[in-house]
Amino acid sequence: MFSFPSFYLITTTLLLLFTTIPLNKSQPFSPRLLDSILQEHAFQPLSGHRTKTGVIYSGNVPSNLTGTSIAALRLRSGSLRRRGYSKYNEFSIPKGVVVSPYVKRVILVYHNLGNWSSVYYPLKGYVYLSNVVGLLAYNASDVYAKELQELDVRVSGYPFVVKFKDLKDDLPHGSLPKCVFFDLFGGVEFEKLVNGSVCVSVNQGHFGVVVEDGLSRLNSSDRNPSTLVLIAGLYLLMQVSK
């Protein structure tokens, strides 16, 4: 039978292991702050007196975000619901889209994060085959507004379609490409890639195509923390039982 000091040693060490193994890495680059910055810059071309509804306007990003591209599209909410909008860059917007709270006009802001994709949306154990692209909806009543909250977007029929172009083809052996979706609250979802280059979703947010990095499975640092704790505990039990 184990003595109290031995039991105390084992439990204390296991607690230390649980508290010192990092389960989540901090995110130094804030996607939500980026959304706010890109919203402000995407709205700027719409401040002109001759801008039109239903026309895509490209915007300019700050110099420290070179490689990112943005655009803005202003639509009447009723027209968006009745007609949708096809071919907004990678996105096709279906009929039946409703925004909440209701506004007369909506601005759909497009993001292509380019070489910043893996910086703002890092995925441990995965490799991007595409840039991360995003589509977010805002109230169009004030094109000079900053730090706007996104409107809630609801799809009542067909989903959004995101068709990617020029996917990287240097896949790790035996790997299967997947769609990845990032919502506005930090959630991440993986879905099946359709027809080799298409993702579908009923929500606004950011999208990409990824493939699992086979090398990450061989990295000992990627082991499940609970497995490491179990191994350490068994080792201690063997030592104190001698």
Which features characterize this protein?
5 helices, 14 strands, alpha+beta, globular, Chondroitinase Ac, Chain A, domain 3, eight-stranded antiparallel sheet, 242 residues, 24% helix, four-stranded antiparallel sheet
Describe the structure.
By secondary structure, this protein is an alpha+beta fold. It has a single domain (30-221), classed as Chondroitinase Ac, Chain A, domain 3, CATH 2.60.220. 24% of the residues lie in helices and 29% in strands. It contains five helices and 14 strands. It has helices at 4-20, 31-43, 77-83, 117-120, 225-240; strands at residues 56-59, 69-76, 85-88, 91-93, 97-100, 105-112, 126-128, 133-139, 152-155, 160-163, 178-182, 188-192, 198-201, 205-212. The strands form three sheets. Strands 1, 2, 6, 7, 8, 11, 12 and 14 form an eight-stranded antiparallel β-sheet that branches. Helix 1 (4-20) runs antiparallel to helix 5. The longest helix is centred in the first third of the chain and has 17 residues, at 4-20. The termini are close together. The relative contact order is 0.16. The model is unreliable at 4-25 and 220-237 (pLDDT under 50).
